[in-house]
Amino acid sequence: MLAEIEKQTDGYIVKFERQFSYTIEEVWSVLTENSKLKKWMSNLQIENLKTGGIIKFDMMDGSFLNIDILECQLNSVLEFTWDKDRVRFEIHKEENGSLLLLKEYIQELTDHTPKDIAGWHICLDLFSSV
User: What is the pTM of this model?
Assistant: First the structure.
């Protein structure tokens, strides 16, 4: 599924949806367990999975950036900073599985924005295969 982009008064929201035949707990584990996370987003590692916790972003040059977890609700919500922006994952129970909703809140479009959006498509395709 392609991303939807909505103009807001303070920027943009990019939305992705993926439906899975898996339980919300199974989707949450792919989203948050480092052994599974590295299969779809290899440069992230969750250090402390809680609101106020940290995700490490491997710059692949020996250095790491700390990403702040803004909200974490077990089997439901994971929101974190993404440079000057925010990324929010929501998992919703559905009759035949679950729905994963990814929203990136973008303050300002840059030359890197299209790469970010394309990157999320690739990551979500990899997510689906874990």
Answer: 0.94
